[in-house]
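Regression report. Comparing outputs from two consecutive submissions.

Submission 1:
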Amino acid sequence: MIERAWGWVAHLRDGGTTPWRDWAGAAPDAGAALPGAQQLELLRRANLAGSPSADLAERILAADPPRRARPGLPLVDGPEVPDHGPRPADPGDVPDTELTRLSAVLLAEDLAGHTPVPPRRGWVRPWRVRYYLLGDPEQLEPWRRHLVARGRPEGGYGGRVVVIGTDTGRMLVDLWTAHCFRHGAVPWSGWLERRATRGGLPGPIDLDALARRERDRPGPRRVHVVTDPARTGDLLGVRRGPGAAQPMAASAVDLGRRVSAVLRPLATPQVRARLVVGVLRPVLADAPGLPLVVPAGHRAWVREEAERLHQQLARGRYPVHGDPGLVLPVDRAGVETPDVGETLALALRLLLSAALTPTLEEGP
């Protein structure tokens, strides 16, 4: 059996795609530990998706599963294994979730090899509008980077507080997306279930609570709520903004969640943030696919919270720029949960194209 197993390893290294259950060839015992079933199946999938380089093939075979994932599994009908430890598995039966986790390890290693580039900072303009941004993180973070690059950083005594929001369903997706790239959040369904069982909207996107809190602080700051993000520039004293923020494909956010989680022990928080913003997110932003939407089982809760927020904004003692009704749910094309098969396909495309691999000039 050991000769059959090493024959399959050689077949995969040469770009073969025959499943283990159909393999009948043989090769001499290499005298080393066999790669696990996950690693072998991931290499077979990579061969099906393209032509991995010899270096990538070896990296896949040597990859360690992330923490809390199953260790490398021995081959069923392969060499004998001890009575203890992981049980043999047919590589063709390894779930896509396990293969995606292993792919995320390789992508995180590539990402960690980049030299993080500090964010662009323009000469600070003394006559700039002083401001503070709160609200939907996927709406306000592009504004922060855009303004810092043009010498208009956040802060300053007496600055106006701009609370940015959009429809409630989109804000929930945006908040989960931000958590995914910042920390590597729990899956979308579990994250949303926790929020729904707690009752109200999460604090970062409860526009009325944010506005009231800032309004009641001592000092001369004036609070503005924006429900139409296109009107943000007028409040910040600029004619041109970063452009309308577009939601990422569900598979891209799911892959970003997994890669960001693996990246945590590989880089300090500051370096990790720069790598995610400067390298990972731009690569994933162009990935094709539909964005996430709120699942049907939670839409009644979202509508109830959106109607509450609409009423609060309509009678709030602060200016609202845009129709308060823009926070009500909007029907849009999307998927209710990421498809792990699509996430795996995207991960393989990035590995095969070396989209996250550092250039020779860049180095670690």
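Submission 2:
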Amino acid sequence: MGTYNVNREVTDQFYRYKMPKIIAKVEGKGNGIKTVIVNMTDVAKALGRPPTYPTKYFGCELGAQTQFDAKNDRYIVNGSHDANKLQDLLDGFIKRFVLCPECDNPETQLSVKAKAGMIGQRCIACGHGDQIDMRHKLTTFILKNPPQDETAMTAAASTPGKKDKGGKKGKKGKDGETCNGDASPEAGNGDNAIKRLKSKNEEEDEDDVDWGEDVSDAAVQARRMQELTGAVSSMVVTDDLEKTPAERVNIFYNFVKKMKEDERLTGVENEKSIVGEADRLDIKDKGCLILVELLLNTSILQQAKTHRNLFLRFTHENAKAQKSLIGGLEQLIGVEYKDVLMPKVAHIFKLFYDLDIIEEEVLLEWASKGPSKKYVKKEVSKEIHEKAKAFIEWLRDAEEEESSEDEDDELDVVYSHTGKVGQTEAIKPAKEATPDKQEEEEEEDDDINIDDI
């Protein structure tokens, strides 16, 4: 059986975290067709997660029902699915629920706080602790089936029920819970089993306490604020979402401003906090307006590189956010620092294009619509469009050259009527340049070469 690196983005052949390749077997036909993941237990063991988690993740991503039969070691996803497709989906599970966001190692453990509606993740390798992004559907399943319960359930299902000394199987306790026989003398009593479970949970809660933490009133209060219950958090979100868009933008402005004052704008965790706040306030598409206002000034050419990752978290595959970013740049160039930045318009737009923050299609659409008074005065917008004209023309020419490459390679071939049998000749269409066309070409030669900007 072949193996992959757990983090398949790592190509080092000596990478010590390995997992077996997924083996999928399609069974049945018609409406009853299903895919059995033959070695899901081994894969999950390599990831340090219960096998039900990745199986359920596949179901969420594929929109298919899942079935778990731990006793027979069968983990099933309804429908016909290729092993390579499931392997690619598993990469998404690993990135979301296994890898440490700080060191990218898969040595993480999950801790479920069901009452608070939160799932924590702590890395054994680097000690980093964080909360799992709760927006994925799998988190609901994990909250209802914590890792400890899942492990116990899998072990119990895969082991035949033992008989106690009296020859009877597990008895029912007072609460009606069935408890299988255990090796210890206490196992024959349902109440004792429940007490042991409660005692175990209490011990785990005590283990979570860091006795080296600051226990001052201020520190305790700060930790309590950070560990708001899920109910309180949802109330905060609901209250803010009832506010007007302008008020929510203002909240986000103050949040980013405070992050800037605390010098917490760079780094994965800080960037996630900023994006998370924009998501919470439902203003992610407009967030770039605030980022431009607070993060950029006359040193924009360097600042854009510094904060590239943060901008990308907003604009990646998000045309609306990219348009808002262009609007913010118009305000920055045409209002805030007009004298300094207006001559650098082409430089600025090319930089944001080269950094992949703004895509070519969005820039061409902005140029084709022409000046607008949405963000600045129409006269100012017109001036910015004029300054960016050389760069836009460069983009268009590059696009046309790329699309016409294949056409230039194709030649019309006809049989020669004068040559030998089977001899062919290529006919290339020739166009004479008109005087007007020659003048246009001369004007284009005088345009600014964007590569020299």
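Expected: both submissions complete independently.
Actual: both completed, but the second showed a warning that disappeared on reload.
Relevant detail on submission 2: The first helix runs from residue 40 to 47.
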